[in-house]
Design brief:
By secondary structure, the chain is α/β, with parallel strands linked by helices. Helix content is 41%, strand content 23%. The strands form 3 sheets. Strands 2-1-3-4-5 form a 5-stranded parallel beta sheet, sandwiched between helices. A 4-stranded antiparallel beta sheet has the order 6-7-8-9, with no helix packed on it. α2 packs parallel to α3 and α6 crosses α8. The termini are far apart.
Length: 230
């Protein structure tokens, strides 16, 4: 079954927010509705999304301020503006902040769906599939396509989650991978229970890599992990 795209809608108008959430949900999207920017940032901390739809004129944090915060904290999340602010200067500011589109209210519901589907189809997915399928990690040969880790003729068959986690760390060798980014990318949620699960899988990978002293998954206390390679 095709995976539903997950969209976060940030809209303070209760009527419009409800109607858009219901309509987009009926069109096959999984919708999370946030009433203002601060609420949206909290939700983005614990859930992954494929697209964000932002209103601009909102209390507590306007859409432009939210977009700037997203650019710093969630740079891989594409977003578009859906706003009544239609002056050219506002549109240009929206694109300058990194928006993939700027739609002006009121917009036809069917047109909105078509624009969203078009955007999602052309935005390059930032997933792990584009990484190398076979690579050397010290003495080990890591075949992520077949979920295999081989050393001196001994082969370990990795589970899907072990494979995803090792691929993620291997693609960022000698770089800090924060708990949050790993959990959001691979588990879809940043919470206590998934963090416990992450630690279990890190322990497993350490055992698999123990035959090569040049490889080490280092724990950076309170921050994340680094796959150290010489």
């Amino acid at each position: 079954m095709e995976k539903k795209h997950k969209i976060i809608l940030v809209e303070d108008d209760p009527s419009l927010g409800y109607l858009l959430s219901e309509y987009l949900g009926m069109k096959g999207f999984t919708i999370t509705w946030a009433k203002h920017g601060k609420e949206a940032l909290v939700k983005m901390e614990t859930q992954t999304y494929d697209l964000a739809i932002l209103d601009i004129m909102m209390p507590q944090m306007d859409g432009f301020t939210l977009a700037a915060a997203m650019r710093d904290s969630f740079p891989e999340l594409p977003f578009l503006f859906l706003s009544a602010k239609s002056l050219k200067i506002d549109v240009l500011k929206g694109f300058a902040l990194g928006a993939v589109d700027y739609l002006k209210k009121p917009i036809d519901d069917e047109e909105l769906v078509i624009r969203i589907e078009s955007l999602l189809s052309r935005i390059a997915p930032s997933n792990l599939d584009s990484q190398k399928k076979v690579q050397q990690l010290g003495r080990y040969t890591f075949n992520s396509l077949n979920h295999e880790l081989t050393n001196n003729g001994n082969m370990i068959h990795l589970t899907t989650k072990e494979n995803e986690l090792l691929l993620y760390l291997a693609s960022r060798q000698n770089q800090l991978c924060s708990h949050k980014e790993i959990l959001l990318k691979l588990w879809g949620r940043n919470d206590f229970f998934n963090k416990k699960s992450l630690n279990v899988f890190i322990t497993r990978l350490r055992k698999y890599l123990v035959q090569d002293a040049s490889l080490k998954i280092e724990n950076v206390h309170g921050q994340g992990f680094i796959l150290r390679t010489e």
